[in-house]
């Protein structure tokens, strides 16, 4: 019998990562941040001094991706995030990373009781049969404010207007790409967290999950 999968999708800085990680720990599910795969590929490309828009290089790097690459130290950098959204529009890259994600969902590591995956296309493409699908949203302003605070808190320089602009650019690219664009699956429950703090969003998500599992 296959183990249950929870798909959590949403735009950048929607709070889906925090929520997904916490949810997984609470119900003893394995957690995979699928954005880190695209970030790892982007980081490897930047390290080589290559252009993330070069689709031949991107496809080659993605093809040799391994689980270890998720541990690279620069994955949270803004420039890696931007480059990640460029390589994520590459169909060959997406194809290479798809199998890794599906294997994780099918056989979650360390005897976990199921898997939580978060990203942009988990409910629509990676795990269309997921038992539970959540789509986490919030206004661009709220998300930019959260990201801005996060950057300042970890000691990075940040300008709110710049963060908002980058976020809109990334949203635009994620929503309008031809392959696996960011959107809620038809059977996803959308959770607008614009007026919720992280605790509240977690409580709402947890009760949705316990109703359905
Ligand atoms: O979620 P995160 O910001 O870490 O993701 C980085 C980039 O990876 C996103 O902007 C998006 O373009 C891409 N991504 C994706 N599909 C996923 C997860 C992330 O296209 N499932």
Automatic annotation (TrEMBL):
Species this chain originates from: Kiloniella litopenaei
GO CC entries: cytoplasm
GO MF annotation list: ATP binding; CMP kinase activity; dCMP kinase activity
Protein's name according to its UniProt entry: Cytidylate kinase
Family that this chain belongs to: Belongs to the cytidylate kinase family. Type 1 subfamily.
Entry EC number(s): 2.7.4.25
Pfam families for this protein: Cytidylate_kin
Highest taxon, organism lineage: Bacteria
Enzyme class: transferase
Entry keyword Phosphoprotein: no
Keyword terms, alphabetized: ATP-binding, Cytoplasm, Kinase, Nucleotide-binding, Transferase
């Amino acid at each position: 019998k296959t183990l249950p999968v929870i798909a959590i999708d949403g735009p950048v800085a929607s709070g889906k990562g925090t929520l997904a990680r916490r949810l997984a720990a609470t119900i003893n599910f394995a957690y995979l941040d699928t954005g880190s795969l695209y970030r790892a590929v982007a980081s490897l490309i930047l390290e080589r001094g290559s252009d993330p828009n070069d689709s031949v290089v991107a496809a080659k790097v993605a093809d040799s991706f391994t689980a270890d690459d998720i541990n690279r130290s620069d994955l949270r950098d803004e420039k890696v995030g931007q480059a990640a959204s460029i390589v994520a529009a590459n169909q060959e890259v997406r194809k290479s990373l798809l199998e890794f994600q599906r294997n994780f969902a099918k056989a979650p590591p360390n005897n976990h009781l199921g898997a939580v995956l978060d990203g942009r296309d988990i409910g629509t493409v990676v795990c269309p049969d997921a038992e539970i699908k959540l789509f986490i949203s919030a206004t661009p302003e709220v998300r930019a404010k959260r990201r801005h605070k996060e950057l300042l808190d970890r000691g990075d320089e940040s300008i709110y207007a710049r963060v908002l602009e980058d976020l809109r650019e990334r949203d635009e690219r994620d929503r309008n790409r031809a392959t696996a664009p960011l959107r809620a699956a038809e059977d996803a429950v959308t959770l607008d967290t614009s007026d919720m703090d992280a605790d509240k969003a977690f409580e709402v998500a947890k009760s949705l999950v316990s109703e359905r599992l």
